[in-house]
Design brief:
The protein has about 500 residues and is of the alpha/beta class. It has 19 helices and 15 strands. The protein binds zinc ion. The site of zinc ion has 6 residues, from loops.
Length: about 500
């Protein structure tokens, strides 16, 4: 880019005002510029290419200002991002007020498949600036850094109005829902306001979560490996028993549970659920929302449901012993129960139940299937490249991971190797439009399914649920571990070894 002397001077003046450049540096730049017969700004950009996007913004605005008034120097101070843009994901600033910003933020969240929006004030150069971040594929990214604090204040007020929260209350947490229409479609966000203190000011941090349309999920959409698929059909067809879906927050447990509900015979059976919150309504399922404010907790709803002749019960979460005990008891007395836990592996959820105070014989007899799952970043199909050391990756990473697998699992590995496509993801600085230069776009589920057997029941009762022994027995009996499952997804070309390891070993 060639910059005229006038533009160069204006931009450098802006940098000088901001303390990016001092007198001495300015002098040096001009000297070098004179020698090379180019503008001082071009010299600066050669030295610090990271300033390019900031310069672009200043130049755009300067152009606009010059059109309005030939001799006025742009008042860039108020409008332009006050620090060099570090993240290439940050949007260009717009002049719009808080309402316009909010439209752009909510619409952008949907278009970019972000799961959460974080709105707060960030400190830059000892000043509070409005900040909006998106969580995309598990990672937070800056979207707006606007020096106008009023943008934050305006967005908070507007969001409170939209979610029927109290405008005059900022000292206690509040939450609600925000409806939003985008391109003619209805969307909904769950919103929460939480009091925070910054620079001695009482402020609020706002988080919005996009409510996924889980009502239409089904097992086909989960892209479950054919090896694990029959376990789901078996679990859904059980006459009674306790099934757990486990994993950290945001690992897709709710989606899996809703998919299971979709495939359950909801006409021939009485299917009910206890949820907090109800994420989506499912036809022919009686869904009850937990409400702590009136004492309607999981355990109380569950006891009431058991008097309503249920066949299948989905208990959103088991946070306390009473709920867990009632749920396991229901499974032992002829009901199918599905619930979730927050553990890292299938066997760890057995230990968790016992730690919660569940009797070992109860856990051993009630449990039927345990699904442990995570979401792994999906490699971008537009910019992925064949892995340069595919053979080494197979030999050093994958072969050892399958060494103790059952014959059936080893067979899946051998089958996958025959048609393997191993890719590597490359961060490319925004060169790829599809993934915004991240190398990854979207996520893919990895899971292990543990089917209870007599040997594991023995370990629970006689060996206090020793996790190492339970894991060894589960693998011997045919469980494909999450790591092995992840490698099969690598061989299918859907993700990378790096992405799998980042998740399953964390
Ligand atoms: Zn890409």
């Amino acid at each position: 880019m060639i910059y005229s002397t006038a533009v160069s001077d204006q931009v450098l003046a802006f940098f000088q005002q901001r303390g990016v450049l001092n007198e001495q540096q300015m002098g040096m730049l001009k000297q070098v510029a004179d020698q090379q017969q180019i503008s001082a700004l071009e010299v600066l950009l050669k030295q610090q290419p990271s300033l390019q996007s900031t310069v672009d913004q200043i130049v755009t605005r300067a152009g606009l200002e010059q059109e309005r008034s030939e001799d006025s120097v742009p008042d860039a101070q108020q409008e332009i991002v006050s620090k060099p843009v570090e993240s290439r994901h940050t949007w260009d600033l717009i002049d719009g007020d808080a309402n316009e910003q909010l439209q752009r933020v909510l619409g952008g969240c949907i278009d970019m498949d972000a799961s959460d929006i974080h709105i707060d004030l960030d400190e830059v150069d000892h000043k509070l600036v409005s900040r909006v971040r998106f969580r995309i594929d598990g990672e937070c990214r800056d979207m707006i850094i606007d020096p106008r604090k009023s943008i934050y204040e305006g967005m908070v007020s507007r969001l409170k109005t939209l979610s029927y929260c109290r405008l005059d209350e900022s000292r206690v947490p509040q939450d609600g829902r925000v409806p939003f229409v985008h391109n003619g479609k209805n969307y909904e966000f769950r919103i929460s306001f939480n009091p925070v203190t910054k620079k001695n000011e009482q402020l609020e941090k706002v988080v919005l979560r996009q409510m996924a349309d889980v009502s239409k999920c089904n097992l086909d959409m989960l892209d479950i490996h054919p090896y694990n698929r029959p376990f789901f059909h078996e679990a859904i067809a059980l006459p009674y028993g306790f099934n757990i879906v486990t994993g950290p927050t945001g690992s897709g447990k709710t989606t899996t549970l809703y998919s299971v509900l979709q495939e359950t015979d909801r006409s021939g059976k009485n299917v009910c659920s206890i949820e907090e919150p109800i994420e989506a309504e499912v036809a022919r399922v009686n869904q009850t929302q937990v409400r702590h404010d009136i004492g309607l907790d999981f355990a109380r709803v569950l006891r009431a449901l058991l008097r309503q002749d249920p066949d299948v019960i989905m208990v959103g979460e088991m946070r306390d012993l009473e709920t867990a005990e009632t749920a396991l008891d229901a499974a032992l007395t002829g009901h199918v129960v599905w619930s979730t836990l927050h553990t890292n592996s299938a066997v760890a959820s057995i230990s968790r139940l016992i730690q919660m105070g569940i009797k070992d014989y109860m856990a051993a007899n009630a449990l039927a299937f345990i699904v442990a799952q995570r979401l792994v970043q999906r490699v971008c199909t537009d910019c992925r490249k064949p892995h340069p050391e595919a053979q080494r990756v197979v030999q050093e990473q994958m072969v050892p991971a399958f060494s103790s697998a059952s014959d059936a699992v080893k067979l899946e590995f051998e089958k996958a190797l025959k048609t393997a496509q191993i890719y590597k993801a490359y961060r490319n600085g925004g060169a790829c439009k599809r993934c915004d230069g991240m190398g990854y776009k979207g996520r893919v589920g990895v899971m292990e399914v543990l089917k209870m057997n007599e040997a594991i029941r023995e370990i629970i009762i006689r060996d206090e649920g020793n996790e190492v022994r339970m894991q060894a027995e589960a693998v011997r009996a045919g469980m494909m571990t999450m790591e092995q499952y992840g490698y099969l997804k690598v061989l299918e070309g859907k993700t990378t070894v790096d992405a799998v390891l980042a998740v399953v070993r964390s």
